[in-house]
Write a structure and sequence with these properties.
alpha+beta, Cytochrome p450, two-stranded antiparallel ribbon, 16 helices, 8% strand, binds protoporphyrin IX containing FE
């Protein structure tokens, strides 16, 4: 029977789930990520899942959690089934996710069940089409400034990249008028830090209301060029917090793609996908069954929480940079999830982050790239990508003029 022993369960908690939680599920914690990079925590996590699979077969492997049914998915075919049968059989809005998301997006599609979810999901699918925002202008303007900054300092740091990327995100979501609204990002950041604690922190109603009013202000402007343009204000107020939040992941994935360096002349979108395979920003995908389900001859009760640890499935395709895997991808490689609840922002991310990566690669000469095998845990906060400065590029011209 695919039931983990007490020791096996303790290992899954100690090496897979707690380290993932500690890193921060909603907003990453720099100190913890630095530590986990030092010990390469994801390596141990992947090994733990592999050992369970070897011991128990295709699973899902039930964990011994008092009073709850929790199962770790260990087969590619089960990942595919879980995502394909979402949301009817497997609800994305698990108790944990709702507890986390209520801090800053209590009405978000991902936190909603039933008929309400259908409408909110449809709204997101429509609103997030790339043609609804002038992402190209936003990316080109902000990356241009970033390139100048990196050339003058000789380094592209996460801090500089992330400031530029947040300006891109605010412009894509709300138009140019939101470009400089750093308070919007800061308030969201504080709420996300609370969301990391899910049930364990009370909701800060005052801050959440202030943030919501700020979002409403931008939604009411409805500026052309932003996703909020032409949409009902209430719908934007409910869903846009997720959009802003999720652009952070797109920035992280882009910065890591730059650190890896291009292998050939693949499009930026392919590098973004591959970066998200190597270091998925949603490392744990959760689903809760709405009815009894049968798996490899074993029945699991309704209300079972299914846990997919994505790095285990992603790294089955190796620890090197594999642009050849994309754009088609491979079964079980699910950085944007999959099936009917696939990330509705995927195309917009691939367009905007893909362009940012492409332009930065064109405009900057990166001196180093990460060595293969690529590390299982990569702390993006600490990335400092050295770039050639104008003096490096043209030393002879100066010398020739006798300076
Ligand atoms: C690299 C960037 C991104 C990655 C890797 C990513 C990945 C994902 C994943 C894995 C999910 C499923 C979560 C789950 O089932 O619990 C998801 C859901 C979602 N994403 Fe993204 N995402 C990214 C960026 C974005 C952006 C920029 C937006 C919006 C502008 C967005 C909008 C959404 C929404 C609305 C959902 C919820 C869908 C639902 O309720 O069915 N995402 N994303």
């Amino acid at each position: 029977m695919a039931l983990a022993s007490r020791v096996g369960t303790a290992r899954v908690f100690g090496r897979v789930l707690l380290p993932t939680l500690a890193k921060g599920v909603i907003v990453r914690r720099p100190g913890v990520l630095a530590f986990e990079q030092r010990v390469q925590a994801d390596e141990a996590a992947i090994r733990t899942v592999a050992a369970l699979r070897a011991e128990h077969g295709p699973g899902p492997v039930r964990l011994r959690v008092p009073g709850r049914s929790v199962a770790l998915v260990v087969s590619v075919e089960d990942v595919v089934r879980l995502l394909d049968e979402t949301p009817e059989v497997f609800a994305p809005a698990t108790a944990e996710k709702r507890a986390a998301l209520r801090h800053f997006q209590p009405h978000g599609s991902l936190a909603t069940r039933g008929a309400g979810r259908r409408e909110r999901r449809r709204f997101n699918e429509e609103a997030l089409r790339p043609e609804n925002a002038d992402w190209e202008r936003a990316v080109r303007d902000e990356v241009d400034l970033l390139v100048r900054h990196a050339r003058s300092t000789g380094v592209l740091t996460w801090d500089a990249f992330s400031q530029a990327w947040w300006r891109v995100a605010r412009r894509i979501v709300f138009g140019n008028g939101a470009r400089g609204d750093e308070e919007l990002t800061a308030e969201l950041g504080a709420l996300r830090a609370d969301a990391n604690w899910a049930y364990l922190r009370p909701r800060r109603e005052g801050l959440r209301r202030r943030f919501e009013e700020r979002v409403r202000g931008h939604a009411e402007r409805g500026e052309a060029g932003g996703l909020a343009h032409g949409r009902a204000v209430e719908d934007v107020v409910e869903q846009a917090p997720h959009w802003l939040f999720a652009f952070d992941a797109a920035g992280i994935v882009s910065m890591r793609a730059l650190a890896v360096g291009a292998a050939g002349d693949e499009p930026g979108s392919v590098s973004v996908l591959e970066s998200a395979r190597l270091w998925p920003t949603t490392p744990v995908i959760l689903r809760e069954s709405t009815r009894e389900t049968s798996w490899h001859g074993e029945v699991l009760p309704a209300g079972t929480t299914f846990v997919v640890f994505a790095p285990y499935f992603h790294r089955a395709h190796g620890d090197s940079y594999r642009p050849d895997l994309w754009p088609q991808g491979a079964p079980g490689v699910v950085p944007f999830s999959g099936g009917p609840a696939v990330c509705p922002g995927r195309d917009l991310v691939l367009a905007s982050a893909g362009l940012a990566v492409e332009v930065l690669r064109e405009q900057l000469v990166f001196r180093k790239r990460l060595r293969e095998p690529l590390p299982a845990t990569l702390d993006h906060f600490a990335l400092e990508l050295e770039v050639a400065t104008p003096e490096d590029v043209m030393p002879r011209a100066h010398a020739g003029r006798g300076d």
